[in-house]
C-alpha cells in the first residue's frame, strides 16, 4: 500500500551486574553488589528494586528523571545505595554491610521503566560468603629459623677463621 509506513519501536531496557554474576565476600565485611541499566529512550519515574532470594525486598528506589538522583522508597538497614544516575552510567549498585553467612544467595536487581511502556528487566548476582582463613605459619617459621641459623653459623665460622689467621700471622711476625 503506498503511503503506509510501519514504525517499529524497539524497547531496549537492559539491566546488567557486570562481567561476572558471582561475588565472594568475607564474613563480617562489606560487599558491593553492582547493577547498571541502559535505556534507549530515557526514563521517567523509573523504579528499581533489589530482592534477596527472589522474595525478600531489601532495597527499592525511584528515579524521577535523568537530571535527578534516586530516592529511597524502602530499605533494609544493612543496605546502602552507592550508585548514581546523573552521570554517564545509570548505576544502581548497593553495598551490603557486615555480611553474614546467612546473606549468601541470589540477589536480583529489577528495573521497571514507565517511559518504555512499563518495560521490566532484571539481572541476578550470586553471593558466596566465606570465612577468613587463618594461615598456619609454623612451617615457614621453622624454615626461616633454620636458614637464619645456618647463615649465623657461617658468619661465626668466617669470623673465627679471620681471628685464627690474624693470631698465626702475629706469632710468625714475632719470631
Automatic annotation (TrEMBL):
It is found in: Membrane. The lineage of its organism: Eukaryota, Metazoa, Chordata, Craniata, Vertebrata. One of its GO terms (biological process) is regulation of ventricular cardiac muscle cell membrane repolarization. It comes from Ramphastos sulfuratus. It comes from the Eukaryota. The chain crosses the membrane at residues 139-160. It is a single-pass type I membrane protein. This is SCN4B protein. Residues 2-126 form the Ig-like domain. Pfam families: V-set (PF07686). Residues 1-18 form the signal peptide. GO terms for cellular component: voltage-gated sodium channel complex. InterPro entries: Ig-like_dom, Ig-like_dom_sf, Ig-like_fold, Ig_sub, Ig_V-set, Myelin_P0-rel. The gene is Scn4b. GO terms for molecular function: sodium channel regulator activity; transmembrane transporter binding. Keywords: Disulfide bond, Glycoprotein, Immunoglobulin domain, Membrane, Signal, Transmembrane, Transmembrane helix.
Amino acid at each position: 500500500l503506498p503511503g503506509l509506513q510501519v514504525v517499529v519501536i524497539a524497547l531496549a531496557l537492559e539491566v546488567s551486574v557486570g562481567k561476572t554474576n558471582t561475588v565472594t565476600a568475607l564474613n563480617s565485611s562489606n560487599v558491593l553488589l553492582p547493577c547498571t541499566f541502559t535505556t534507549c529512550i530515557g526514563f521517567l519515574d523509573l523504579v528499581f528494586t533489589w530482592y534477596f532470594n527472589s522474595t525478600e525486598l531489601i532495597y527499592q528506589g525511584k528515579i524521577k528523571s535523568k537530571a535527578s538522583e534516586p530516592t529511597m522508597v524502602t530499605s533494609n538497614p544493612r543496605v546502602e545505595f552507592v550508585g548514581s544516575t546523573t552521570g554517564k552510567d545509570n548505576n544502581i549498585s548497593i553495598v551490603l554491610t557486615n555480611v553474614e553467612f546467612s546473606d549468601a544467595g541470589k540477589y536480583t536487581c529489577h528495573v521497571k521503566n514507565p517511559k518504555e511502556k512499563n518495560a521490566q528487566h532484571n539481572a541476578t548476582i550470586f553471593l558466596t560468603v566465606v570465612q577468613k582463613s587463618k594461615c598456619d605459619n609454623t612451617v615457614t617459621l621453622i624454615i626461616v629459623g633454620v636458614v637464619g641459623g645456618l647463615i649465623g653459623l657461617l658468619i661465626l665460622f668466617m669470623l673465627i677463621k679471620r681471628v685464627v689467621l690474624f693470631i698465626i700471622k702475629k706469632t710468625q711476625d714475632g719470631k
